[in-house]
Design a protein that fits this description.
The chain is α+β, with helices and mostly antiparallel strands. The chain has two domains: 1-38; 50-243, Jelly Rolls (Sandwich), CATH 2.60.120.560. It has one helix at 2-38, and strands spanning 50-52, 61-62, 68-70, 76-78, 84-86, 93-101, 106-113, 124-129, 165-173, 176-181, 184-190, 222-225, 234-243. Strands 1, 3, 4, 6, 9, 10, 11 and 13 form an eight-stranded antiparallel sheet that branches. A five-stranded antiparallel sheet has the order 2-5-12-7-8, with no helix packed on it. It is globular, with a radius of gyration of 22 Å.
Length: 244
């Protein structure tokens, strides 16, 4: 009988190990699947579901006449500090694009803009900046590149120096935003945690011109790109989107 109980006990231990291993594998697979559905990095924008945000004449964009131009190579830039907007409003999406800074550039990608005339308090801006310049190297980190502007800094600096092309992949799903810059996930923001327009989740103060809490912003909105701000140009190309 002792041998029987020992064999049964050993068998049960083996079964438990198999069950635990399976649970761990399922958990890891679930985490990976969730990551793939949210934090998109380096997507294949030639695959199904992707489309250009603008045509090669910007005829489907909203912007003041004469401000934004696009050249034969598909590079888009502005002559003034005026944003260019998608003609369509979006909810959940992945946005993939390339941008190039000039010395001192301060620009941004604007999402969830429910009011494109007074967009600053009615949207979320993912910052673009020349972090190597005197103007932006020493500012608050939530004003630097890949930050959720005024609210949450990037976890590390991956922006390239002025004159080099960068790749942004921005995922907006419900009230979460994931920002990948040059192949690395550098910002994950839960808008629902920002319940006041005055103070950020880390205790820092938000800019006074952003009084609306991100937790209360409408998600259905236009996507925009800030123009020649603070005197320095910005260049965009290969802007593509996939709705989720």
């Amino acid at each position: 009988m002792k041998g029987y109980y020992f064999t049964t006990f050993t068998y049960n231990i083996r079964i438990m190990k198999i069950i635990i291993t399976c649970c761990v594998l399922l958990f890891v697979a679930s985490i990976r699947s969730t990551a793939q559905d949210t934090a998109v990095v380096n997507p294949d924008t030639n695959s199904k579901g992707w489309s250009p945000m603008f045509d090669n004449k910007l005829s489907d964009a909203i912007f003041p006449a004469g401000v934004w131009t696009i050249d034969k190579d598909g590079v888009m830039t502005a002559s003034k500090d005026e944003a260019i907007w998608s003609g369509k409003a979006y909810d959940n999406f992945v946005l993939d694009l390339e941008f190039k800074n000039a010395p001192g550039t301060n620009s941004g990608v604007i999402v969830h803009a429910s009011d494109i005339k007074e967009w600053i308090p009615h949207s979320v801006e993912i910052q673009i900046a020349d972090d190597y310049s005197d103007e932006w190297a020493h500012v608050n980190p939530n004003w630097q590149c890949a930050a959720i502007f005024g609210h949450q800094a990037a976890t590390k600096r991956t922006v390239k120096k002025a004159g080099e092309w960068n790749r942004y992949t921005i995922t907006c799903k419900d009230r979460k935003i994931w920002v990948a810059l040059n192949g690395e996930l550098v910002n994950t923001c839960d808008m629902s945690l920002y319940t006041t327009g005055r103070q950020n989740t880390d205790g820092s103060l938000a800019p006074q011109w952003l009084p609306n809490p991100m937790a209360s912003l409408p998600l259905h909105g236009h996507i925009g790109f800030q123009g020649k701000h603070a005197g320095a140009p910005i260049y965009f190309r290969n802007i593509k989107i996939k709705e989720l």
